[in-house]
Amino acid sequence: MSDLEKKSIDPATIKMIQKAAVDGCETIFDRAEAMKPCPIGAEGSCCKNCAMGPCRVPAPKKKEGPAKKRMGLCGATAETISARNFARMVAAGTAAHSDHARGIAKTFLAAAKGEMPEFKIKDEQKLYQIAMDLDVEIGEKSVQEIAIEVGKKVLEEFGRQDGEVSFIKRAPLKRQEIWRKLGVAPRGIDREVVELMHRTHMGVDQDYQSLLLSAARCSLADGWGGSMISTDLQDVLFGNPVPVLGQINLGVLKKDQINVVVHGHEPLLPEVLVSVVKDPEIQKAALATGAKGINLVGMCCSANELLMRHGIPVAGNFLQQELAIVTGVVDLMAVDVQCEMQSLAQVAKCYHTKLITTSPKAKIEGAMHIEFDERHASEAARKILMEAVGNFKNRKANVEIPDDTTDQVVGFSYETINYLLGGMFRASYLPLNDNIINGRIRGIAGVVGCNNARVTHDDPNLTLIKELIKNDVIVLVTGCAAMTCGKAGLLTPDAARKYAGEGLASVCEAVGIPPVLHMGSCVDNSRILLAATAVVKAGGLGEDISDLPVAGAALEWMSEKAIAIGEYFVASGIYTVFGVTWPTTGSEEVTKLLFEDYENLFKGKWGFEPDPLKAAKSMIDHIDKKRKALGIDKMRERVLFDMAKRREIEAA
Predict the structure, then answer these.
(1) Which of 340, 361, 394 is the last residue of a domain?
(2) Three-state DSSP state, 606
(3) How confident is the model at residue 321 (pLDDT cuts 50, 70, 90)?
(4) 194 and 307 share a domain?
(5) Closest Cα to residue 295, out of 331, 270, 269, 326?
(6) d(CA 529, CA 408)
């Protein structure tokens, strides 16, 4: 492989890395080459939780043999330090998703009260379902009354001091029993984050097993709490996604239009921009500059939100955010929270791009700030768009847009999958279960997460997913991994015959779906949990998520959110494989607990495998093990019954 091919397998990305070098603009790919990770920090053995440190407690070398445990100044062992660092990642990831959810919940309640006329209830059926799950009496109440009560109930989930997070009741009963037996059924969402941070403070919880169980409880407050709340309420406000056609990659940017890139994770501003950009006055102002209009595109998970509800094109995933600006045609990039690189401000200076921060929680030095206030949403959106219009004239000569774009079909919520499998009156996951039982579909994999500049951009996720579908494993994707699949052409029904095994391809062609189903942004991993639960409830594949022939992966993970996501998948009973690096390798005991002993506790466990083909094999082996346990590992011989045989069955 050439040096460029080691950085990315995506042609558009490679072209823009080359252009950035010619333009003298530094990107994350340059910094990754120049700066190597700290080996002790990477294995989770560095503690800086008090002012006596940082204390580095690397794992003893094998040649040293059995030795006295290494300790930090306070006596914290490598096990305690490693478990604390892992737990803090879970707490931070849970906080990120759940703070997102709190903002959506507050907006939802205000919209229900009529205080935010720009946001309305679009999916009444989903509202009713949420209301029933929260024990809200429907009766003769109006939609507004139900919505207000739902809004109040979900906000109570954050500050709850007693009881359990309400949505864990959605999980299979057997799974709930496991959580309660282990004492990890999550209580209030905020309580779990605060308590876990307290436990990891110097001199508090110093038992790695206790720390990791608390981390599991916190992560469940994310997956079955904060993330599930945000996904549900966003669907009610903006509409439950249904299959829609869109385009992806840097080629969606237009030389003759004003390009506005929306980047981040919260869909409130992007939804308003979609509406306001059509305003005749805005369009008139754009045309007056000589541009042919305004081209609104998404980046990262904001892109997923816009794409699956409106078909708005996607410029790219995490490692492409700087490169969109490198094209020289991005007139404005608006960012909110999570996964925005601080370097965007410096890259923007190399060109003419205006970088706008919009959240009071997330500001960047060197960026312009236009705060998004949900109560004056259109006003902020108009101001942002007019800044883009005014900046069009400042474009420089060094413009180059890759011609790479790919069609994709997205928007497969678990409700949509239910409908596609059975129609309006026979909606059910039974056809999926039947095809898993008969062996046409070997199993299900969830592949989620980020990009990571320490590996070849898009390669691990894509190689893994292609290997899975080739072996008849249907794949559910979210976040940046979903965008990888879109760029590679895996998110269209035609991909089934081209890339999938014969059994999976036959099912996909019969239903008219791709072999890889785009389920949304990274906060929408809760959709995968509910899809797995729906499979359990449909029958024939065991009584718990852990009984299913399923596995999960995030081979290019980089954020604390990914650790929180992986932990709640594992705690929900799913074997989950990560790549790149693993944050507890400094402690054999902690790693053993996560990779082996967790299976005895949660019936799910972690795995670590940077090689995507080996990761795929480990997932397929796990799926086959579950098939064997269910007694569906062998194709059943088809027997044609004569009338005598039929009478015997009826008599029995």
Answers:
(1) 394
(2) strand
(3) very high
(4) no
(5) 331
(6) 24
Residues 449 and 481: beta-carbon distance below 8 Å:
yes
Beta strand extents in 290-336 (DSSP E only): 294-299, 314-316, 330-335
Name which of 408, 412, 421, 433 is nearest 478 in CA terms.
412
Bridge partners (DSSP) of residue 354 are 332
At residue 617, the 3 state secondary structure works out as: helix
The verdict on 110 and 20 lying in the same domain is no
Q: What angle do CA 117, 120, 126 make, to 5 degrees?
A: 165
Structural domain tally of the chain?
4
DSSP E strands in 520-578: the ranges are 550-554, 575-578
Residue 520 pLDDT: 93
pLDDT score for 62: 60
Phi, psi of 292 (to 5 degrees): -90, 5
Distance between CA atoms of residues 231 and 227, nearest Å: 6
Task: Give me 472's structure tokens.
Answer: 């008849």
Domain match, 594 and 455 both: yes
Residue-wise pLDDT tens digits, 548-602: 999 999 999 999 999 999 999 999 999 999 999 999 998 999 999 999 999 999 9
What is the Cβ-side half-sphere exposure of residue 150, based on CA atoms within 13 angstroms? 31
Report how far residue 326's alpha carbon sits from residue 404's, in angstroms, rounded to the nearest whole number: 15
- Only one residue has tokens 């009260």, namely 113
Burial class of residue 432 in the structure, from the number of CB atoms within 10 Å of its CB (0-12 exposed, 13-18 middle, 19+ buried): buried
d(CA 478, CA 449): 7
What SS3 state is found at 614?
helix
Contacts of 620 (CB under 8 A, 6+ apart): 442, 443, 468, 471, 473
Location of structure tokens 């290019």: 556
Q: Is 255 exposed, middle or buried (0-12, 13-18, 19+ CB in 10 A)?
A: middle
pLDDT of residue 426: 72
Six-digit token string for 242: 């249904």
Q: Are 364 and 342 in contact (CB under 8 A)?
A: yes
Q: What's the maximum distance between 2 C-alpha atoms anywhere in the chain?
A: 85
For residue 219, give the 3-state DSSP assignment: helix
| pLDDT one-digit tens code per residue, 169-209 | 999 999 999 999 999 999 999 999 999 999 999 999 999 99
Task: Please indicate, yes or no, if residue 166 is contained in any of the structural domains.
Answer: yes
Residue 560 lies in a domain: yes
β strands within 1-110, DSSP E: 46-47, 55-56
Residue 275 within any structural domain of the chain: yes
Backbone angles phi, psi at 550, to 5 degrees: -135, 160
CB atoms near residue 78 (< 10 Å): 27
Residue by residue, DSSP assigns 20-43 as HHHHT---HHHHHHH-PPPHHHHT
What is the distance between the alpha carbons of residues 133 and 127, in angstroms, rounded to a whole number?
Answer: 10
Contact 259, 292 (CB under 8 A): no
Q: Which of 248, 243, 239 is nearest to 271 (CA)?
A: 239
CA terminus-to-terminus distance, the chain:
66
Taking alpha carbons only, the member of 477, 512, 475 closest to residue 497 is 512
For 428-488, the three-class secondary structure string (H helix, E strand, C coil) is CCHHHHHHHHCCCCCEEEEECCCCCCCCCECHHHHHHHHHHHHCCEEEEECHHHHHHHHHC
- Based on the domain organization, do 137 and 286 belong to the same domain? no
- Domain with 365, as residue range(s), is 250-394
Amino acid in the structure at residue 628: K
The rounded percent of the chain whose pLDDT value lies above 90 is: 87
